[in-house]
Amino acid sequence: MNVIIEKNIFSQPEIEMIFKTIFSAENESKWSINKHFWSDGIKNKSPGTVSIFRIEGELREIIENTLQKYLQVDEKIDYIQYYEWNPLSQINWHNDSHKKGAITVYLNEKWDPDWGGFFCWQESPEKAHLIVPEYNSAVIVRGNPPHHVSLINPFAPVRMTLQIWLTSPTQ
Predict the structure, then answer these.
(1) What pLDDT is attached to residue 92?
(2) Closest CA relative to residue 55, chosen from 90, 14, 98
(3) Cα 79 from Cα 31, distance rounded (Å)
(4) Whole-number Å distance between alpha carbons of 89 and 87
(5) Does 43 score more than 60 pLDDT?
(6) Which of 117, 109, 107 is nearest to 155 (CA)?
(7) What is the mean pLDDT of residues 11-35?
């Protein structure tokens, strides 16, 4: 199990293209919300919602090319999603045992620790860590440690992330 933090993942033109593509699709049916398919145990009866957009096509290729240097030889990108974590959203402690790993890239230019939305993971039963979202940084998680995202303050802005799911090349 390991958790790695990488900074300055995307160039500014890549970030602009990510937002342009996502926001130009705001009215398309490609959007969903966590309440439709996250299990009750993960949602933890949170009143907040996470809006989710699946990234495909040219933007997916750009993101894949950029992230290739962070992948291990036994990993490939399964799918890529954009998440908007609305105030009062969270995700309960869980592991991603159905995947080889995951990469989360933070897209808010500013994130105040008072807003919550920390990525927390458990190294052992006695030791846990947390990360405050930092613009254009990635958290790469392998080995499926227990983890969660803490409750986002009701007065916080939307927390924006890319969620990249990893699988084995043979899957």
Answers:
(1) 84
(2) 14
(3) 15
(4) 5
(5) no
(6) 117
(7) 83
In 3D space, the residue among 90, 56, 78, 50 whose CA is nearest the CA of residue 165 turns out to be: 78
Cα four-point dihedral sign 83, 6, 144, 60: positive
Tally Cβ neighbours within 10 Å of residue 25. Answer: 15
Task: Find out whether 159 and 131 touch, Cβ atoms under 8 Å.
Answer: no
More confident residue, 135 or 142: 135
Q: How far is CA 135 from CA 83, 105, 150, 164, in A?
A: 14, 8, 18, 16
Threshold 0.90, pTM exceeds = yes
Query: Are the C-beta atoms of 62 and 17 separated by less than 8 Å?
Result: yes
- Residue 100 has a pLDDT of 86
**Amino acid (1-letter code) at residue 8:** N
User: What is the chain's length?
Assistant: 171
Strands 76-85, 91-94: parallel, antiparallel or unpaired by DSSP?
Answer: unpaired
